[in-house]
Amino acid sequence: MAVATSDSILARSLITDRRSTNFGLKNEVCRGKVVPCRAGGKVKGKGKGRVEVKAAVQIGGLEEVKKAKEEMGLDVVSEEELREKGFLGMRKTKLVCTIGPACCSPQDLEKLALGGMNVARLNMCHNTRDWHRDVIKKINQLNEEKGFCVSVMIDTEGSQIHVLDHGAPSSVKAEEGSTWLFTAQKLEGSPPFTIQANYEGFSEGIEVGDELVIDGGMASFQVIEKVGNDLRCKCTDSGLFLPRAKFSFWRNGKLVARNSELPTLSKKDWADIEFGVSEGVDFIALSFVNDADPVRQLKNYLYMRSTRVLAKVESLESLQKLKEIVEASDGIMAARGDLGVEIPYEQIPTVQEEITRVCREMNKPVIVASQLLESMVEYPTPTRAEVADVSEAVRQYADALMLSGESAIGPYGQKALSILQMASSRMELWSREENRQSILHQRRLGVSLPDRIAEQICNCAVEMANNLGVDAIFVYTKHGQMASLLSRNRPYPPIFAFTSDNGTRMALNLQWGVIPLLVELSDDDMEANISMTIELIRRKGLLKPGDVVMVVSDLTPTHINSTAFQSIQVKTVV
After folding, report:
1. 0.85 exceeded by pTM
2. 40 domain-assigned
3. What is the CATH number of the domain that holds 545?
4. Residue 395 maps to which CATH number?
5. Any idea what the CATH number is for the domain that residue 194 is in?
């Protein structure tokens, strides 16, 4: 029986006529009170948006089970974590690691994967395409041969106006009082105290006395002489000078505007994008995005491909057009290092929280990046302030945290990853123990009736899951829509997303609280999907009698002409 009231969808004990499955399910409906949940708008029309809410059903005594595949599609790290910590102990915040010379061997990549790396980031500013291709090949081999599920992201270089290079393969220390030459001339090798700018007009409008800041404050210089297009500068704040560093100019405490007609996507960026697509990367992150146009341009180019487009928010212009950029993209990276160059330091915490809030409202994953554990580029332990910073990002319900130089060039990358893992797990547990439900303004996302129904089902499903204390949420999805809508509400139990599309699986790797599994699903028999997946997990000893799972789906049965059969079911394992 379909349930669709004018103001709410009520979970009731409904006995519905279901055709029997090959799994011999015995439906014993438990009659119990379920807390009602509000559904923001009215549902109109007959035969449209059919919504079924079923009460708890006992699963057990299966007489016939289809022969299970040898691999369930659950990655080895999630499986081990589930065995060790149980459903509610599973980490929900995703972890991104930048891959560099310090962690590019098969052994190091495997250690990062075992440590909880969900996404491997490759910065196209550094190394050759052959190097990146080799890393991608190693990650794919880990996934295929050892059962990991690590997605791959490439990060475009962006406008060349912001980039400097000293030519050395690793970082160089700039000492206070030393004098350096900044030039756009092409250099052979890496001459001492000489820095090459990648844009000929890098010094246009710059005056003697201006301050040159490297990577948001890693080192600072003062311009003491201007010779043609070259700048001679004195180091005023010593620090590390990384390869392919970004820079900015300041005058009287204010950022010097850099007028450039260079496009957001350079020729090199397009070549890197084509490389990434040919290698099957899962995400492309665009640097120096100031408006939504380059995001739309790239998404049009990637039409019908599974690659997702992330926009990096790292400039004042991108903040001013934040909502349109978030709406156009598939996700956001809050690049706090570069952002901190363009806005006052004291505004970074509130800006970070605003970016995270807007992304949640608009159902787009957000990565908090840059300088999370910056001291671990050199030292084996983080500062307590860095751990507090990480915990605050988790408290704000960011989808993911990212290591940059800590993993790419630092000697303690695996330890830095373990600290992210421990800090995020502890803060998630504390939030749940303190019943700190994040207040989310329920901005309506769906336009069509089916999309609005899916949104309301997910909102209600999470409220029910939290109130009923279910152990896990199972969602069956083709493109990941309902999995992301569930994640948006940040439920207490983990979300197991079953999909038969590998592109969807890898994209969901970035969503908070979602454990994606690749399985063969039936479009016509939802009960068969449920029984098969529950039995697969039960056979591995990961489900035990008494465990309660909530089930939702956005799969569209081929025999229904109007819209997807969408339901909320609560099932108890016996």
Report:
1. no
2. no
3. 3.40.1380.20
4. 3.20.20.60
5. 2.40.33.10
| Model confidence pLDDT, tens digit, residues 454-484 | 899 999 999 999 999 999 999 999 899 999 9
Distance CA 558, CA 562 (A): 10
Helix (H, G, I), strand (E, B) or coil at 51: strand
304/334 same-domain check: yes
Confidence of residue 13 (pLDDT cuts 50, 70, 90): very low
Domain total in the chain? 3
Distances (CA, A) of 489 to 222, 330, 363, 401: 48, 17, 9, 19
pLDDT score recorded for residue 109: 98
What is the residue range of 169's domain?
Answer: 162-255
The total number of residues written for the chain in this structure: 574
- Tell me the average pLDDT of the chain: 83
Of 404, 434, 464, which one is at a domain's C-terminal end? 434
Q: What is d(CA 337, CA 397) in angstroms, rounded to the nearest whole number?
A: 20
In the chain, % of residues over pLDDT 90: 56
Closest CA to 390 of 345, 360, 362, 423: 423
Q: Which long-range contacts (CB under 8 A, 24 or more apart) does 113-117 make?
A: 113/77, 113/142, 113/146, 113/148, 113/150, 114/77, 115/414, 115/417, 115/418, 115/421, 116/77, 116/91, 116/417, 116/418, 116/420, 116/421, 117/150, 117/417
As a whole-number percent, the residues of the chain with pLDDT over 70 amount to 82
Domain boundary residue, one of 234, 255, 276: 255
Residues 148 and 180 in one domain: no
Residue identified by tokens 């041969």 is 145
Other CB atoms within 10 A of residue 533 CB: 24
